[in-house]
Amino acid sequence: SFTYLQELSQEKSLHGQPIRLRLDIHNEQILPYPMMKIRLATPVWQEQRELNFNLPARSHLSFDLTMQCPYRGQYDIGMTVIDFVDIFGLIRLPFDMRLLPYYRMKQLLVYPRLEEIEALPLPTRTSQAFARHRFATEDQNEPFSTLRRYQAGDARKRIHWPVTVRLQTLMTRQFEEAAEPQILLILDLSPSDWPGEAALQAADALCESAAGLMHYLLRQNYLLNLTAIGAQTEQRQLSRLAEFQAQYHWLAMTEFSGSRQQFIRSLALILEQSRSAQAILVVTTHADREIADLLLRQHRAGRPVFALFAGPIQSSADEERLQHQLQQAGLITWRMHYGDTLSRQLTGPLR
User: Fold this and answer.
1) Which of these, 5, 33, 10, lies nearest to 20 by C-alpha position?
2) Can you tell me the mean pLDDT for 100-123?
3) Least buried of 186, 210, 325, 333, by fewest C-beta within 10 Å?
4) In this model, does residue 129 exceed pLDDT 50?
5) How many angstroms separate the CA atoms of 316 and 291, rounded?
6) What structural domains does the chain harbor?
């Protein structure tokens, strides 16, 4: 038997920022391990590094390994399988470390890149609306609010506790929002149609785009209605930059699930129910005719709709053709491919 110590330089990282894994192997026995091969899981797709070495009796070896973090997400890092080979190289005995009840691989969380966006062609906030919004969210006695019964999905901070206690039923403050630009941000969390590593690139580009858009909208003090559609639909109302970090963490951890058809059905329903939104931003990895038709219908009805198509490094001919058709119809679209600079894609010429 042998002992080991493996440590990550950090438990959280950023897309493109390397990490280090330190691995110490100790042989405290009187017999050597003439040939050992250790396989290591890394944050790189389908990469499994191998360390080949001899471990003499009563000795130890140290390895300091640098690993790249090309995609956001959660990863198990460290030793997976150890191969013990006899001195003649004839017998190999593999042992999966993950079968040991006490063995734990190191956990790594990689955040998407966050770039600051300078401007977007969205409804402009007035100073009066901004002051009213700040006052309404900070003061429970704000005169522009009314009360109604609690509904599923209402933010906890909007519950009027004194009245709730008096009436013995949850009551929610509802603020006057007519002059307040509300932005509906819809994220498509259904798996993309791209195969293999290209699917990881598309998901990374979508999460990076979502992070940049959310940060910009909250920094500009918009009321942001976030809707994420995967196997289930999640809806959140955000109004402060202080709320961004929790959403950023969620973007790093979220998994893509559901189906394209499920997203299309949910998108159609949400667009019909969201008549009060002053602008609608849809971020998807699917350059899909059905999705385009839904957005064009809203655009022709006079609603400000924007579409961002996220994808891998290489785009497809179908994607370029569909985007050209949307632009010809007057609908503002952007393309964000893996490795692109988000701020440049959004603030440059509309494509």
Assistant:
1) 10
2) 92
3) 325
4) no
5) 17
6) 3-111 (2.60.40.10), 126-179 (no CATH), 181-347 (3.40.50.410)
Type of residue numbered 166: R
The pTM of this model reads: 0.81
Q: Which residue has the tokens 């499920």?
A: 262
* pLDDT tops 90 at residue 134: no
E-strand spans in the chain?
Answer: 3-8, 12-14, 19-27, 33-41, 48-55, 59-67, 73-85, 92-96, 106-111, 145-149, 171-175, 182-188, 223-229, 233-238, 279-284, 305-311, 332-337
Question: Are 212 and 293 contacting, i.e. CB atoms less than 8 angstroms apart?
Answer: no
Share of the chain above pLDDT 90, in %: 63
289-333 pLDDT, tens digit per residue, is 999 999 999 999 999 999 999 999 988 888 888 888 998 999 999
What is the DSSP track for 17-39? --EEEEEEEEE-SSS-EEEEEEE
